[in-house]
Design brief:
Blueprint: H1 2-10, H2 19-40, H3 47-77, H4 82-104, H5 111-134, H6 139-158, H7 161-169, H8 171-187, H9 190-198, H10 204-207, H11 213-240
């Protein structure tokens, strides 16, 4: 009886209409399944692609752990788990930037590109967190800086050094690079949009305010698992060549 009581204290009841909690649960399971898939497939690839596939597994594994905590946080408090979400992003988004560097190494990408991309991503995330959780009175200012960092990343991969390296590599690398670029341009766009929906600013009169956790959860799963599948497909094609 004691063990049963203790267990029910750990597991919060999820209502059938709790769509936010449902997407947290599905996100956690999807990320964990993707991690198992990427980790278990490592042995079939050449050494030069194993690191890329491993990083894909780490991205989804880190997200799965955070989604486990975010699901419980939502169940207990009924609030958006902003802190856990940003901790997840601070760890996984730089790893997604690392994926660009790893696939472009064949074209001579230097570590300066990697650190530049990671730097932009950290600026984007840290200023976003300040705007949402630390200094919401100036959310528009922090959001502006975060948005600028996002667009610099978009420029870098579409028109900057990363784009030039991808064109030099050609073939499967260029194809994979273009797909990842679309993930950043379209998939990542939900994050600045969600930021504006979740904070007060000049944009509130146009967009309004609301809970965007469902959109965040779906976008996170698509972006992170999708990133990994693009890398996986590239590794498969390259191993056959």
């Amino acid at each position: 009886m004691t063990n049963f009581s203790l267990l029910t204290g750990w597991v919060a009841k999820m209502m059938p209409t709790d769509y936010i909690g449902f997407t947290f649960f599905i996100g956690c399971m999807a990320m964990m399944a993707a991690s198992a898939f990427f980790f278990l497939s490592l042995s079939q690839f050449d050494k030069k692609w194993r690191t890329s596939v491993l990083v894909s597994g780490l991205i989804t594994f880190i997200a799965a752990v955070h989604y486990f905590y975010m699901r419980d946080y939502w169940s207990v408090f009924g609030e958006s788990p902003t802190f856990f979400r940003y901790v997840d992003w601070v760890l996984t988004v730089p790893l997604m930037c690392l994926e660009f560097y790893l696939i472009l190494k064949v074209a001579g990408a230097k570590t300066s590109l990697l650190w530049k991309m990671i730097g932009y991503s950290l600026v984007m995330l840290i200023t976003g967190y300040f705007g949402e959780a630390v200094d919401p009175a100036n959310a528009w200012l922090w959001g502006l800086v975060s948005g600028l960092a996002y667009f610099v990343i978009v420029y870098e991969i579409w028109l900057g050094e990363a784009s030039k390296l991808a064109k030099a590599a050609g073939g499967s690398v260029l194809e994979a690079h273009k797909i990842l670029c679309w993930f950043v341009l379209v998939g990542w766009a939900i994050y600045p949009l969600g930021y504006m929906l979740g904070t007060e600013g000049w944009y509130t009169s146009m967009l309004g305010k609301g809970n965007v956790d469902v959109a965040y959860n779906i976008a996170d799963a698509i972006n992170k698992i999708g990133f990994g599948l693009v890398i996986y497909n590239l590794a498969v094609k390259s191993s056959k060549d």
